[in-house]
Amino acid sequence: MGRSSDAKERLIEVATCLIWERNYSSVSVDKLCKGAGVNKGSFYHFFPSKEALAIEAVENNWRIAKEMVLEPSFSKDLPPLERFNRFFEGFYRVQLDMKEKCGCVAGCPIGNLGSEVGIADTVLRKKAEEIFLELASICEGALRDGLKEGVIKDIDPAYVARTLVAYESGLILQAKIFDDIEVLRLLAPGMARLIGVVLKDGRLVAGE
Predict the structure, then answer these.
(1) pLDDT tens digits, residue range 22-80?
(2) Are the beta carbons of 67 and 135 closer than 8 angstroms?
């Protein structure tokens, strides 16, 4: 059994990996305990159910995504279009690292979980919805800054942000289905068309 001081963290880490690499329904409490090196007593000491652990795993994954990709990418110190360029690069890099680790494109753990449980599990679906709306809000902020600076024109930032998140979700699903990480390279050209800017060497730049 793992040390009691880090048993909870081990369970969250294992749940994050297993749900990403496989799926929620196929990951049992027994598998989670075995992967974390803890017994069921320890599991239920920290979590009343597998669902409760999944929620914490999703929140943990989202926290890491924000720390590693979103916060450095969407820094207010960066020009608006550069924020999206860095986001696309970071998003691709995370998926590439995961592909090298598990041998296939694993997709988005939050999207995977949300689509798998569907309407059957309101709590998990709502958590996925909450995270996607937060991502859209982050994108919307950068778009509004782009409008203020004049590098983006004549768009509805809220609508475009939601559309971008939907587009990103669709691309990562396609990348997973085809097991082709390069599908994610379509993010930048799709975004360029969506907001009416130029794509140069795979990066968004302001038009003339």
Answers:
(1) 777 778 899 999 999 999 998 999 999 988 998 898 898 899 889 999 999 999 999 99
(2) no
> Contact at 8 Å (CB) between 99 and 169?
no
Q: What is the CA angle 139-143-145, rounded to 5?
A: 120
Contacts of residue 137, defined as CB under 8 A and 6 or more positions apart, other chains included, come to 161
Which fold does the domain 58-205 belong to in CATH? Answer: Tetracycline Repressor; domain 2 (1.10.357)
For the entire predicted model, the pTM comes to: 0.86
How far is residue 71's CA from residue 58's CA, in Å, rounded to a whole number? 18
**Which residues, in sequence order, are bridge partners of residue 198?**
205
Do 105 and 95 contact (CB within 8 A), yes or no?
A: yes
d(CA 57, CA 62): 9
Q: Rounded distance, CA 153 to CA 196, Å? A: 8
Q: Quote the longest CA-to-CA distance of the chain.
A: 64
Six token digits for residue 76 = 């207010």
Q: Concatenated DSSP letters for 46-96?
A: H-SSHHHHHHHHHHHHHHHHIIIIIHHHT-TTS-HHHHHHHHHHHHHHHHH
Burial status of residue 12 (CB atoms within 10 A of its CB: 0-12, 13-18, 19 or more)? buried
